[in-house]
Amino acid sequence: MTLAVSMVGFGRFTITHLTRMVSSTLRSGGNAHSGRIFSIGSLPCIALPRLLPFAGLHLNPRKFSSDAFNTSSKPGLATPGLHHPFNHLNKMAVCKRSSSSSSLSPIHPRNGFCNANSTFYSKRNPLPLPANSSLDVTTFISSQAHNGTTAFIDAATGHRISFSDLWRAVDNVADCLYHDMRIRRGDVVLILSPNSISIPVVCLSVMSLGAVVTTANPLNTASEISRQVADCNPKLAFATPDQAPKLAASGAISVVLTEEDEERVGSTLGVRVVGSLSEMMKKKPSERRVRNRVNRDETAMLLYSSGTTGRSKGVIISHGNLIAHVARYIAEPLEPNQTFLCTVPLFHTFGLLNYALATVALGSTVVLLRKFDLHGMMAAVEKYRATTLVLVPPILVAMINGSDLIKARYDLTLLKTVRSGGAPLSKEVTESFLERYPTVDIFQGYALTESNSSGASTDSVEESKRHGAVGLLSSGVEARVVDPDTGRIMGVNQTGELWLKGPAITKGYFRNEEATKETIGSEGWLKTGDLCCIDDGGFVFILDRLKELIKYKAYQVPPAELEGLLLTHPEIIDAAVIPFPDREVGQLPMAYVVRKTGSLLSEKTLMEFVAKQVAPYKRVRKVAFVSSIPKNPSGKILRKDLIKLATSNSTG
């Protein structure tokens, strides 16, 4: 027997209201039992999809529909109620030649290239975007049907949270934020924490209110964090007790502790502590809470990305951007019942968008590693029976170097896949890993904070065999390859700067119109700053970085920031920082320094000077003293000359 409940016309409902309604309906129907399929006709409120698991009920994805989206479909037809911006290339996909011509040109089925507009289109399944413009990402994620049970596990403590408890916690925390903390639509909430179950709880709660999430790197210094706080002006911060003191220099910001620590609460932190997350998660929601409708164009997150100018910029991420990202996983679903071990930081777009948000929609289990330790990671793979390991290339190299000990000590029978991101994998590293771990497949991806984890990826064993490629374009993504000198749009197997376009691409930088205009074109094209080519099969190869960012262990290090810091030293008159290639970490920040006449400044003293003022990943690791820094007539540092000098000296 299938029960149907019409919810048309209801606008202000809490979990408590709906629980009573569903309970009453089930009682009136008689013989209600766990496992009954519940068919809903209309859904004006976020709470109902998350309510059903609490009652032991399950959504039938073929019968579920709402005013937000409709997943009923027929074979061979576009899903009703869903917007498909790109036709699948197996069909008669076409592209417009120009605005002045009505003639059409086919998209090449092998590489996705359209000659008419010199644009590459994704070969993957169409992106199923909901048509409703008044939809927040928390609602979208919570409304996806799945069979998952455990959402997150803390690798260090073993603490775990089920999906039903996760959504209950999200509702409780959102209620406290609204009533007790007075968080409103558009308010910014900062998260300062290492990997923790608290991060997805806080993110989903904040965004459900139409408020904005911003994350900070817990490795950053107090001064670095204070600059971010000054830029985005958060009304509230969630922080661990050991991180909270870093906010003392940021003014009178209120802090909620994400972990209990009796000894460090209060004045010893130097900040105003207004509550604890554990208490917020336990508090029952108020019946007077009203959930606002959120427009998809409204900002959901501000994630800070390092720039070549030396100052990080807040990337504006809308609810629509995040919905497009999650929809990508729905269009190209992962294998069911996967357990991910996540070693990448959740403050970063790679970890946050993929393994704190998208996996929740899929019902996958994510095991969170607070900090990287090779043997701690492998022990967690064995203990929690992880099927997929999420990491960055330097960790892959560590697994290669320690392969004999790892295979002798740990049971990796269930480990089937490694997903790598943050920086491209070289062909040599990939082949070396597969030689040592022949039963484990490597999938990698390419994306930027500005593209919200959409770009390119390898998602199958066959695709992963194209060593050196970062993969095929993601669902819903268009790409152009543009000559950086002439602006000419290139074609297949030609080299140029990679431009990306699609529903996941940011609309710009927070309070930085100049940077937005430099990076986002008038037609919405994101200029990635990466040199690439796309081959006959549609595979993307990243060849070099036009941008000057240094990738140290997949962290972005802006050389201009370090150069500015070096020039504050009284014995330095000029400096340049370059990426020095390193097999273990990718690239090392190396400084070329011009000392004042008579100065005895040493390499060690200089590195200590920098280390005291920046996060560990930004530290200068190599120093060379020179008489002058090579520059062009306009005064720009000729970094390629310095890189060539550094690498020739290291091999010579």
UniProtKB/TrEMBL annotation:
SUPFAM superfamilies: Acetyl-CoA synthetase-like (SSF56801). Its cofactor is Mg(2+). The keyword ATP-binding applies. PROSITE patterns: AMP_BINDING. Residues 144-510 form the AMP-dependent synthetase/ligase domain. Keywords: ATP-binding, Ligase, Magnesium, Membrane, Nucleotide-binding, Transmembrane, Transmembrane helix. Belongs to the ATP-dependent AMP-binding enzyme family. GO terms for molecular function: ATP binding; ligase activity. It comes from the Eukaryota. This is Uncharacterized protein. The keyword Ligase applies. Residues 561-636 form the AMP-binding enzyme C-terminal domain. The chain crosses the membrane at residues 346-369. InterPro entries: AMP-bd_C, AMP-bd_C_sf, AMP-binding_CS, AMP-dep_synth/lig_dom, ANL_N_sf. Pfam families: AMP-binding (PF00501), AMP-binding_C (PF13193).
